[in-house]
């Protein structure tokens, strides 16, 4: 049986690889979502370089995934959903700390969709409290 958390961890390792030099394609947000009424996972991704040329960006991602994931793991994915960097992603997804690993969420809303499970692979992290002088 395929473990989705293992897929998420592989994607986290892969994201670190292509965010670094020499590839230098950093990602702002990367997550696996399983909608309540589906049995395959959506991969949500937001990156500045993906905004510039979405088609070649998705081709790049697919090429990288094929190097890392098995065919059975790829078949667990439904689609790659690019999120333009100007779109506000709800804080429940972006304010998590993914520096120590993938973060799992359950039964959360993403706009009007109920997400049964979500694995946040890369997020901006908790917002820093602003201090007033």
Describe this structure in words.
The structure is a single chain. The chain is an alpha+beta fold and 133 residues long. It is built from 5 helices and 5 strands. It has helices at 4-19, 48-52, 54-68, 71-74, 91-94, and strands at 29-35, 41-46, 77-82, 103-110, 113-122. A 5-stranded mixed beta sheet has the order 3-2-1-5-4. The longest helix is centred in the N-terminal third of the chain and has 16 residues, at 4-19. The radius of gyration is 15 Å and the shape is globular. The mean pLDDT is 90.
What are the SSEs and their pairings?
Blueprint: H1 4-19, E1 29-35, E2 41-46, H2 48-52, H3 54-68, H4 71-74, E3 77-82, H5 91-94, E4 103-110, E5 113-122
Parallel strand pairs: 2-3
Antiparallel strand pairs: 1-2, 1-5, 4-5
């Amino acid at each position: 049986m395929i473990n989705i958390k293992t897929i998420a961890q592989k994607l986290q390792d892969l994201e670190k690889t292509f965010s670094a030099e020499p590839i230098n394609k950093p990602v702002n947000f990367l997550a696996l979502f399983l909608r309540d009424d589906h049995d395959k996972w959506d991969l949500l991704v937001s990156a500045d370089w993906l905004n510039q040329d979405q088609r070649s960006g998705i081709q790049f991602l697919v090429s990288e995934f094929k190097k890392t994931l098995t065919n059975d793991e790829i078949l667990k994915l439904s689609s790659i959903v690019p999120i333009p960097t100007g779109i506000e992603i709800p804080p429940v997804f972006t304010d998590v700390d993914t520096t120590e690993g993938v973060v799992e969420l359950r039964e959360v809303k993403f706009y009007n969709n109920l997400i049964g499970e979500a694995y946040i692979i890369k997020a901006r992290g908790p917002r820093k409290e602003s201090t007033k002088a």
